[in-house]
UniProtKB/TrEMBL annotation:
Protein name (Swiss-Prot/TrEMBL): Dihydrofolate reductase
GO molecular function, one term: 5-amino-6-(5-phosphoribosylamino)uracil reductase activity
Bacterial bifunctional deaminase-reductase C-terminal domain ranges (all copies): 132-170
Gene3D superfamilies: Dihydrofolate Reductase, subunit A
Listed GO biological process terms: riboflavin biosynthetic process
Lineage per the UniProt record: Bacteria, Bacillati, Actinomycetota, Actinomycetes, Micrococcales
Length: 193
């Protein structure tokens, strides 16, 4: 069944990166295990993390991200991350000059258009929304079904917030998944309707 999931690695105090966009040790868990998560040869996690993350990655069809994330990653070299089929980029700017328009990236103006585009592309598979400002906007608009957090054992003190600039209360159900990996605690909450 198709669902919309907000997801990211996050510090214990709720940040997905420092003010300068450096994630610091938030992704240590992705390289601290002995089980390959993908074919890159870079990502190696604990067996517990693999058993939780790999099936989730396999169900994602589309990732929605903001233009800032797109720019920080250099557009993932025109290859969607984690094996997803498409990336929908929320932006008020056109694709970068020289961008391969045949790459599976879709540039849209706003979260409503992003969701319509993502759902059309995803069919009955999962739509993932990157945490941060875009994810927070989608949560506030009632478009997110589930919140997943990979909580790293670090306190950043300040930085880019997991929920972006959300400034109102949103209730989640009790966590229905709690998995301890190496250097990470995986949590999943359904959004209360």
């Amino acid at each position: 069944m198709r669902k919309v999931v907000m997801n990211a690695s996050v510090s214990v105090d709720g940040f997905i990166a420092a003010e300068d966009d450096d994630p610091g040790p938030l992704f240590e868990w992705l390289v601290s295990g002995d089980v390959p998560l993908d074919d890159s040869g870079v990502l190696n996690v604990s067996q517990a993390s693999y058993d939780h993350i790999r099936p989730y990655w396999d169900e994602i069809s589309v990732t929605i991200a903001g233009r800032h994330s797109f720019d920080l990653t250099d557009g993932w070299d025109a290859t969607p991350p984690s094996g997803v089929d498409h990336v929908v980029v929320v932006t008020h700017r056109p694709p970068p000059e020289g961008w391969d328009l045949n790459a599976p990236f879709h540039f849209v103006d706003g979260i409503a258009e992003a969701m319509v585009t993502a759902r059309a592309l995803a069919g009955d598979r999962t739509v993932e929304v990157a945490a941060g400002d875009v994810g927070g906007q989608m949560l506030a608009a009632g478009l997110v079904d589930e919140v997943r957090m990979d909580v790293a054992p670090v306190v950043l003190g300040s930085g880019k917030r997991y929920f972006g600039s959300v400034d109102s209360q949103h209730l989640l159900e009790d966590p229905d998944v709690i998995i301890q990996g190496d250097r990470v605690l995986h949590l999943r909450y359904r959004v209360r309707r």
